[in-house]
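Researcher: Checking consistency across runs. Here is ZYBA0S07-02520g1_1 again:
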Amino acid sequence: MDVPTIPKDAEKGDNELSSKNENLAELQSIQETPSFSDRVARLSISKDSEMNKKIISELKHSNRFEDQCIDSPSGSTAIVEKRRRRRSSAQSSCGPDKEMRDLNSSNHLNTLLQSPQEGQQIIKSSQDESASCGPEVPVSLKKRRKKEALKPISLEKLPGKPATLKDLRDSTLACFGDDSFCFPVLKFTNLRSIKKVVVLFTPGLQAQDFGITNGSKFNENDHFDASKSKLFERLNPRLKIEIFPVTAPGSKNSLYPAYNHFLNKLLSKRDRKIRKEELSHKKITINDLLMSLDDMIEKNFPIHPRTLNATEALLEPLNEGQNAYLDTKKFDHDGSHIFALDCEMCLSAHGHVLTRVSMVDFDMNVIYDELVKPEAPITDYLTRYSGITEEKLSNVTKTFEEAQRDILNLVSEDDILIGHSFENDLNALKIRHPNIVDTSVIYEHKAGPPFRPALRNLTSTYLNYNIQTGEKVGHDSVEDAKACMDLVKLKIVNGLTFGISLSTENICERLSSLGARSLRLNENACRNQISNPNSMEASIRCVTDKEVLDGIVNHISEYDFFIGRLKGPALARGYVYGSSMRHVASPLEIPSASDALDTLALGMEEIYSASSDGTMIVLMSGNGDTREYSQLMADLDALDRETKTKVRQEKAHELEAAINKARDGVAAVFFKQNLPPE
């Protein structure tokens, strides 16, 4: 009888089906067999000696890896084999094989037979030893965190490259639950137990303040001994203080503002896209472009009383030295209520003095354009910038007071004034006004904040025409005022996202979204008291370092994140510290270096004492020694554009060395927690 031929495809299908059935049977058998951990668990609770013998016998003949590689039901032998290979490849001398060898040894087995309690302890110690050896023993994230929470909080600076301000900022965010960061050079233990972060931003710190040789670089030192530093002598000597070098932001050709860099983090592409979509759908008016009070104070604008809606006592420290300033008053008038204004200044022995004022209305009509007789003899007409010459001012009779009064008669308190880097114009006019639109704020520099774009770059980029092109004839204040008005109109038409990259987010805003309350303390804050105790973000205006440190102590229980900007060491050592130095009226107000450091040391002790367990305190310099860099930049800024470019190229190596020195910063980190017994 002929045997029917079975097609190869059908034969192949039957073989595959048979193989699958065998695999399923094998898998079911594996799943029904008690796993290694199941047997150990049964052994740990069993008091029956016969049962214990049986379990140990099973343990001796079991293959732990085959038992444990099945985490969930699967119908594929390939998956089973893949998991077995993956588990087997992870084996090490301190992994599960070691545990199995220990359990198979006669000593361990005899102990298990003789005393179940001792046997349970041996199994537990074997499991703990295996778990500590590496990733081959799976432990849930929840269990790891629970185990880590029992350890003290600590920080170790890993060897290699220096830390950056970004590392410190990202670790701060991670303390409050932001898991989107990794720290390649900082190793935290029990980071989740940190509940508060206090940052003391203190430029002017030097090598000798940290117990190393005066004049040496921070990034050339691998070890810092806190016991040799007077900064920490008031703290508990058992306290572990981690001190390490920190590279300030910048490049080999430039130095970036460290404080702003720490406070502003780059947004991810996804976050930028979301934020841009949110803003792009909003129709705006010119009122949406008005400067905030914080921005006005940060950029050294004179503050109008209505802006603060506060008493003269509150205004006095903000407007210190502005006795000759006048405030715009409310009155009714016809015509435009939006004006663009620009001033030209020349240099006198007493600083910059007003020499021309120009103003246009919303329809680009020139409503005011006057040359002004300078209040003091001119030492430099700055013609390449101002367009003013000695000849132009020779027959001018309009006084400063007259020009100031003219503007006050044209502009009501309710009107809107537009300008570019407008604080310079208002300070030259000595006028305070509440409603300001600044084109250097509503349009971003390509490098992002805190840099501010030049007006000529904005007009060429967005308006397709050029201004300030005549090096010899200088700027034209009417032309500049019209450019500002054009830029504002263009912004209103295109929306809030036009002209900005939305590349950064303030760290306090980010912390607010994470449920953490933040408090900033510096002399550029908008108030010297907290106006809304329930606010997630608050600020206190502090002129002295002691006010900053006392402010942290007084509010330590109310907020989660504190950043105080101190200036004593920088003032004492002659560091240039930007606009934050502007309130220092005389050398009598500049502290000695020892007094500044004593104030800092005492403040850290008081903050530490007032803090609750789980507080991280960070002292950072931000920058290194900026004195050489600041002097070089001041010399370059005094030159005209062509000469400046040539001299900068000649001094390229000198400038690069000064920048390297200015970027060599330092940080010290310690924690308030229950110290382990001695």
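Researcher: Does this match what you'd expect to see?
Model: One thing to look at in this run: Residues 1-14, 26-32, 63-138, 577-585 have pLDDT under 50 and may be disordered.
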